[in-house]
Amino acid sequence: MKKNITANIITLNEEKNIEAAIKSVQEVCDEVVVVDSLSTDRTCEIAESLGAKVIKQAYLGDGSQKAFGVAYAKNEWVLSIDADERLDSNAIEAIKNLNLESTTYDAFSFARKTYVGKAFIKLWYPDRVTRLYKSSACGFTTAGGHARVETKNVKALEADMLHYSYADYGEMIKTSHKFITRGAKIAHAEGKIASKFDPFAHGVGALFKALVLKGGAFHGVNGWNVAIISAFSSYMKYALILEMQENDKF
Prior knowledge:
Layout: E1 3-11, H1 18-25, E2 29-36, H2 43-49, E3 53-56, H3 62-68, E4 77-80, E5 85-87, H4 89-96, E6 107-116, E7 119-120, E8 129-134, E9 154-166, H5 169-189, H6 198-213, H7 220-248
Helix pairs in contact: 5-7, 6-7
């Protein structure tokens, strides 16, 4: 049974993903709003054919883009999901069992199961994300690159959101470059000061956390792949911040 929930999906050239994402949330949501960042493929056409309300808006940043769509929602409860995410069957069942009219919580979180290709990355699980929320009580922060729902009154559901983040490790490496650069620019703009030791310290720290503290060393080749890419990303983020600091001097 569908509930009075609006699914809010942000997109940019997601014609390969959008149909599965919309059909996933339509199991429990009676409205779907897609905020599209001016796609040049068939994303909007596919979304509209499935009954979604499509709003076109140039990209404002992750949190801001997700917050933008709330104004177009007919329901107070909003389910935010990315185009490369799906609700697992246990999440669909958990949402159906919620009594949103009488709950004392402002939001609910899901455990996220992330995949690279067909490989489930145990290292990143459960990666809790707050995605179902009462928009009159809370919402996504619009500050910098930190896209999260701001509330402490949240209930953790024993339910999973599936995240098909990368088609393969080649795509993960290419995409990491974008996140490294964006993260460094945001940190620099916010006044973050890096020392010459920070790239090494953060790179080694990320590797130790992934392999030892989270047990990635025992997750086979996928654990090692993700740990090494994460360590490299952390190292390069601080290396770029240092470079920006040096460039400021001239």
